[in-house]
Amino acid sequence: MHIGVPREVKSDEYRVALTPAGADELVRRGHTVTVETGGGAGSGFADTDYATVGAELGDAAACWAAELVLKVKEPQPEEFACLREDLVLFTYLHLAANAPVADALVTSGTTSVAYETVEDQRGRLPLLAPMSEIAGRLAVQAGAHHLEAPHGGRGILLGGVAGVAPAEVVVIGGGQVGINAARIALGMQAHVTILDVDLNRLRELELVLGGRVDLIYSTRLAIAELIRAAHMVVGAVLIPGALAPRLIARDQLGEMRPGSVIVDVAVDQGGCIETTRPTTHSDPVFTIDEVVHYCVANMPGAVPVTSTRALANATLPYVIALADMGLDDALAARPELVPGLTTRAGTIVNAAVAEALAG
Fold this sequence. Notes:
- The protein has 2 domains: 2-125 and 304-358, Rossmann fold; 129-301, 3-Layer(aba) Sandwich (Rossmann fold).
- Helix content is 33%, strand content 17%.
- The chain has 11 helices and 15 strands.
- The strands form 2 sheets. The chain has an 8-stranded mixed sheet with strand order 3-2-1-4-5-6-14-15, sandwiched between helices. It has a 7-stranded mixed sheet with strand order 9-8-7-10-11-13-12, with helices on both faces.
- The protein starts with a strand and ends with a helix.
- The model has no long low-confidence stretch (mean pLDDT 97).
């Protein structure tokens, strides 16, 4: 099979969908791999690293001409013309909050498989997990930075010092993003509260985090009470394929501390804060009612040397299955891929995505 890896063109996106090690595995299995010239540079891979293992180097058109195209982020408007009926696209899509991309995929007839909805038998999301881990850790780093007064924040040191209380960090959602955010906040000696609607998950977190955080069953009233005292709020809510629920309304911002920071990691799925809108690493924050919002839609793109390797480690087994077997046989052999199938033959086939877009 011919596999193409175009360079990412989304603003401030430095990751690449395939490492030289992954290209080597595919070439050894008899596949043709074309990587766009310069595509791996942002992740620390030179063109020669790919060429040495037998991958071809080409322009964007040569990569998009492949049967299977691997990307990190959803196609951008300038890439819509590259979509076509006989193409399988494997990437993050987040279509519930991105109707124009959904329309382009449907109109072109492209078959797409979304990383974020690939789901194993235990309900885990193996291709979303590594980026969720990174985003959760980055969320607290970014939030701590923007709590500093020169960056628009309240002027709070997350861990405090002897005689001065630490910052209050509230994490809404106890999944991979939430637990990783909590770990970093704890490491910076903040006081941390996690909210979740899954009592079993809260019990797991109690064991994993050793009682070092407050674990609260999530209701809108509990959220409203906690954000009033919070210095940082991390939105870490996920419903696979669907829009994130809006858990903090615009009129609640006025009840928060001036200079507090919201980091909405759910921005890819529309955000769990009413005032969320996507931002970029070049222009990451905006302020509403004296509350700083950090809503970068590709947070792991800031650490591509780490995040590219973490993503490629997770995706490679599925890439090999798609390349070796073709789509239909790969879906049969790796049932985890079935919920990832998002568009096919001009139709949105993932029920959660279809419902979100219809609403």
